Each structure stands twice: as structure tokens, then as C-alpha cells.
## 1
Amino acid sequence: MRKIRVGVIGGGAAGLCAGRNMMKEPDKFDFLIFEQWDEVGGTWNYTEMTDVDQYQLPIHSSMYQNLRLVQY
């Protein structure tokens, strides 16, 4: 059986959920998650930066200053 190739744009909550579900069927999906930041988590990652980043890409506001992600 031929695998379905999938590119997931964004490593936020929805992108990570999509990847997790595709991992359950490794014989069916060949996927890659693309994330523009150095860390996954989307708006869960807090940053005090505003406006644009070093590549002139817009910085979306962080909502959770005290939330910490734990990666397993």
C-alpha cells in the first residue's frame, strides 16, 4: 500500500494533534510538521517580542505568560 504524504503547517495545538493521530497509522501516513519558530506549541509559547521577528515575519501574540510546556 502506498503511503499518503502529508505536510502539516504549524506546530501549534492543531498541528501537533494532527501529527499524533497520523503517528497511530505509520503504514498509512508519511508526514512532516513545519514550524517557523524554534519551538513547537504555537500560542502556548510565551514571548515578549512584538511586531516582527529577525526574518521580518509577524509575531503573533502569546496569550499565556505563566504556562510552561513539558516535552516528553
Note: The chain has a mean pLDDT of 85.
## 2
Amino acid sequence: MAIQHFFNKSIVIKRLESAGGFKKVMVSTGTVDAHIQRIDDVDVLQVYGVAAATHKAWVDISTNINEGDMVISDDYTYDVVGVSVRGEGIAINEHKEIILNINNEYRGTP
């Protein structure tokens, strides 16, 4: 079964970009399907050398997402603290694994 079968949320990916001069704004790079899951019952965890990770997300391998981006789902706003490609070249299970941290500044304001 393809991993895409488990994608049960639509998420918005936002990226910090320059708006001219010293001004920077968050712009949406797209809306994609994903699966988000809490890593553990511990609020702060170190995963893949990234401290303070609280959730993982899985998205299609072609998704344009980078460390430093912001992910907005229907319940929380997250900071992307890690991105890794999994299963590249292995037919139906190619995907990106995203390490997320809840963004307390934007919590509850999708």
C-alpha cells in the first residue's frame, strides 16, 4: 500500500521571503496532503540531532518544503526543523519525512 493512502490532512506551507528593503513576509508556497503525528508524549525530544521536535509529518517526495518553513494544519502551526527524503527510487513509498516543532507564537491561529 502506498504511503499516500495515509495522508489525512491538508497543510499549508509558508516560507519567509523578502518583500523589498528590510521587510520580510511569510508567503504560501502551496497546500499539500500530509500525515502529521506526535513523536512521543514528551513535549521536547531530540530527533535526528534536532532538539525540540514534537511531531513528524510525511508528504509526497515532490513537495517543496525546507527547514525554516512554517506548516499550518487545521489545529496547529509548526516550524519545520528538519527534512529528509525517504525511499527515493523505491516505487510507491517515496516520501519526505518532516520534523516539526509546535510554534507557540502562532499556536491556534491558522
Note: The chain has one domain: 3-102.
## 3
Amino acid sequence: MRAFHVTYAIATPESAEAGDYAERGYVSPEGLLFVNQFERDIRKHAVILDECAMSLRQARDMVCPVYDNGSWFEGEWQTRDYATGAEVCYGLHVPCSATPSTVARIRRVLGFNK
């Protein structure tokens, strides 16, 4: 089932100083980044979400989650560019339609025993 989404956030020293990210958006199953510039246009946003939907296995392999944030799971920050100091972090998002028991099963699959 292709219902999971992976998001990314890139922080640079400058963006972190300003309390924001330099870039953020969605990741496709092929690893392509889609900058989240279409938030205000619902139709374009829906197309991006559809193109970026993936299976739990694909999402898990891309994120390697280590933090359980309730309705989404986050990986470690990784240095992406040593020259600029930019770091990237990926998040795995559970479908909004998932029931509490489904979310509990997903947690177990991802290695979180809650």
C-alpha cells in the first residue's frame, strides 16, 4: 500500500540562526526531492503528495527512524554538505486515516515498543 510520505528538512548554519530551515519538502520513492513551495496551491500539493506516496518498507528504508514523535517518525540529522555545514533530516509520516491500532502495529514494525 502506497500511503506513507517522507519529508525532508535541510538546515544550514544561517537558517538555524534565523530559527528556520533552508529548505523542506517531500521525497519521492526514487529519492527525488520536491521543495514544499506548493503549499498554498491545493491542486499542485495533491499531485506532489500522490507522486511521493510510498510503501512502509520504502519509507522505513529511506528514513531509518530513531525518534517517535507521535504521528510521525524522524531519523538522525546527517551532514549533507561539509563545505556549507548543511544538514538534512528525514521524517516518515503515518497516513491520517490510520487507526490507533494500526499506528501501534507500525510502531512495532519500526522497532518502537509502545
Note: The chain has four helices and seven strands.
## 4
Amino acid sequence: MTVLLIDDEPEMSELVGQWLDQLGSSVVRVGCFEDALAFAGRTRPRVVLLDIALGDEDGLEMLPRLRASPELGQVPIVVFSVHASKRREALDRGAAGFVAKPFEGDDLIATLRPFLA
């Protein structure tokens, strides 16, 4: 099972990848919307993990675009951010879940496990 991680911070991507290895998931890391769609067109992920802050892109603005894509329209998207106040907006825009930074690996795994079962 594959998790598509959309995050532009290599350190966070590496850490999340290590945590998800515990679930037996393979993690594909991309840093922008176009790369996410290109990957999803080749291999449909089981879940998408999306950071809100992506350099020049806004993850919240990206959410409806991901939902509208044929490749990712039905794939659960879990958002993570240091801005816990963005939880409601993320869910309203189509996120299936939200994890506030900083988070522990157990918190992330608990949020993602239902989507990976």
C-alpha cells in the first residue's frame, strides 16, 4: 500500500517515511501539485498526506484541485499543519483527516491506519 506524501520539507518527509515504514507502507514523496498528479496517474495511492505550507503553493487551495482530479478524487487526503486552527477549513475543503504539528509518530499512524486497512 502506498502513501503519497506532499511536502516540500525533506526532513519532515524523511521522518514521516520512517514512521509509515512501521505500517508496511511505501511512501512516495513529492513537493508540489503537478508531481502529485503525475505520480497518481501512474500508481493510485491508498491515502494522501498533504502539508498545508508548501512554499509557493497552499495545501488548502490544493485540496479542491486534488479532489477534482480523476486520479485522486476518491483517495482519502489527510492534512497536517502547525496551524491547528485550519482543521475545520481543511475538513470543509475535502480532507478526510487532520493532524496538528508537532505530532508524534503514534498520532500520525493512528490517524492513517483506518485508511490503510
Note: The radius of gyration is 13 Å.
